[in-house]
C-alpha cells in the first residue's frame, strides 16, 4: 500500500489542530477535510487548505475519500461520532476518553470488530521516554514485586480554562476531572500495573462550584489485582499554574519516582544493582497560552496509525485499553454517590 493514508479531523480546537498539523507533516498522510460546528473564521485554521464541513454527517455524505477520521471534539461526542465513523466503514482515532461510560466503549469496540475497522485510542503519554523506561523496569522484573504506587496530579484549571461558553466543566460533555485532565495518568498506571479493585474514594469541590458541574479534587485508594496497593490524589484547585504530576513506585528491589509537570523526568531511581541510563529528552508540553497540557507526542500516534493500516506494525494503543481506562474512572466515580462532594 504505497498511496497516502487519507485523514479527516473532527473538532478544530487546540488538540484537533495538533492532529491536523501532525497529519499534514507526515509524508505518508494526506489531510482531506476539517469538521467543526463553529464558523471557520473563528477557528484559526487558515493554514490548512482543505474542505471544511459544519457536521460529520455532511462530510460523510460528501463523497470525499477518507481512510481515517480523528475525533477531537468535546468528550461527550466521542462515542456517537466514533460510532458513525466506524459504521461508515472507516478507521477512527479517538482522543481520550474513548467514551464517558463503559457500555458505550464496549459498543464501539463491538462495531469495529463487526466492520473490521481499527479504533486507535489516544494515549500519548506512553510515548514519553520516562514512561517507556518505567514500563521496561516493571516488565523485566528489575523492580521485583510491586508494593505501593502513588499517583499525584495537582494542576491549575481556573476561569481561564473553564470559560462559560466552553464545554469544559459541563457534566454531559466533559464527564469530570478524571476524564478530561487525568485519564492519561490513569492510562499509564493501568498500562504499567494492570487493573484495580477495592476502590475507596473521597471527593471535594473547593473552588470550582461556580465553574464546573463536578468535583475538583479527590483522594482515591485501591489494590492492584496483580498485587500491591495504590493511590491517586488529584486536584485542579492549584493556584495560578500546574504544580506536579508524579508517580512514585515502592517495590521489592527499589524505589522510582517520575515527576515534573507532565511526568517527563525521572526524579528518583534507587534500584538494587542498577545504574540509570540516560534517556532521550521528552518532547515539550502542549502550550495553550494561559494553561499547559501534557507532552506533545501526537506525531507518534499518527505514525502508528499509518504503520498499522499499511501492515508494518501492531497497534500501540488499542481500544480495549481505552475501554479499561473508562471503566476504572467510572468505578471511581460510582463512589461519588456514597460520599460527600
TrEMBL record:
SUPFAM superfamilies according to UniProt: Glyceraldehyde-3-phosphate dehydrogenase-like, C-terminal domain, NAD(P)-binding Rossmann-fold domains
Gfo/Idh/MocA-like oxidoreductase N-terminal domain segment(s): 5-120
Domain GFO/IDH/MocA-like oxidoreductase as annotated: residue spans: 134-256
TM regions (residue ranges): none
Domain of life of the native organism: Bacteria
Signal peptide: none
A GO MF label: nucleotide binding
InterPro entries cross-referenced by the UniProt entry: Gfo/Idh/MocA-like_OxRdtase_N, Gfo/Idh/MocA_Oxidoreductase, GFO_IDH_MocA-like_dom, NAD(P)-bd_dom_sf
PANTHER family: D-GLUCOSIDE 3-DEHYDROGENASE, UDP-N-ACETYL-2-AMINO-2-DEOXY-D-GLUCURONATE OXIDASE
Name of the molecule in the record: Predicted dehydrogenase
Organism: Chryseobacterium oleae
Amino acid at each position: 500500500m504505497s498511496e497516502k493514508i487519507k485523514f479527516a479531523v473532527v473538532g478544530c480546537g487546540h488538540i484537533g489542530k495538533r492532529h491536523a498539523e501532525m497529519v499534514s507533516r507526515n509524508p505518508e498522510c494526506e489531510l482531506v477535510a476539517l469538521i467543526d460546528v463553529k464558523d471557520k473564521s473563528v477557528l484559526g485554521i487558515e493554514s490548512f487548505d482543505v474542505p471544511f464541513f459544519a457536521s460529520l454527517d455532511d462530510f460523510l455524505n460528501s463523497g470525499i475519500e477518507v481512510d481515517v477520521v480523528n475525533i477531537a471534539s468535546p468528550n461527550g461526542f466521542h462515542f456517537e461520532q466514533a460510532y458513525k465513523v466506524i459504521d461508515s466503514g472507516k478507521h477512527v482515532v479517538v482522543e481520550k476518553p474513548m467514551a464517558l461510560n463503559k457500555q458505550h466503549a464496549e459498543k464501539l469496540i463491538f462495531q469495529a470488530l463487526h466492520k473490521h475497522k481499527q479504533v486507535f485510542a489516544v494515549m500519548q503519554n506512553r510515548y514519553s521516554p520516562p514512561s517507556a523506561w518505567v514500563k521496561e523496569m516493571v516488565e523485566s522484573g528489575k523492580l521485583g514485586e510491586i508494593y505501593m504506587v502513588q499517583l499525584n496530579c495537582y494542576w491549575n484549571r481556573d476561569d481561564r480554562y473553564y470559560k462559560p461558553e466552553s464545554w469544559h466543566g459541563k457534566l454531559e460533555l466533559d464527564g469530570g476531572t478524571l476524564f478530561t485532565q487525568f485519564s492519561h495518568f490513569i492510562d499509564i498506571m493501568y498500562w504499567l500495573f494492570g487493573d484495580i479493585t477495592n476502590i475507596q474514594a473521597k471527593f471535594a469541590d473547593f473552588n470550582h462550584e461556580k465553574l464546573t458541574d463536578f468535583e475538583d479534587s479527590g483522594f482515591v485508594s485501591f489494590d492492584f489485582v496483580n498485587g500491591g496497593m495504590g493511590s491517586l490524589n488529584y486536584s485542579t484547585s492549584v493556584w495560578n499554574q500546574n504544580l506536579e504530576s508524579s508517580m512514585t513506585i515502592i517495590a521489592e528491589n527499589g524505589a522510582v519516582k517520575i515527576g515534573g509537570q507532565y511526568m517527563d523526568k525521572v526524579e528518583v531511581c534507587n534500584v538494587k544493582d542498577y545504574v540509570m541510563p540516560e534517556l532521550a529528552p521528552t518532547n515539550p508540553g502542549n502550550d495553550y497560552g494561559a494553561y499547559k497540557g501534557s507532552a506533545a507526542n501526537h506525531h507518534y500516534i499518527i505514525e502508528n496509525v499509518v504503520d498499522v493500516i499499511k501492515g508494518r506494525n501492531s497497534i500501540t494503543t488499542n481500544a480495549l485499553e481505552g475501554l479499561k481506562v473508562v471503566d476504572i474512572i467510572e468505578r471511581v466515580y460510582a463512589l461519588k454517590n456514597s460520599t460527600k462532594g
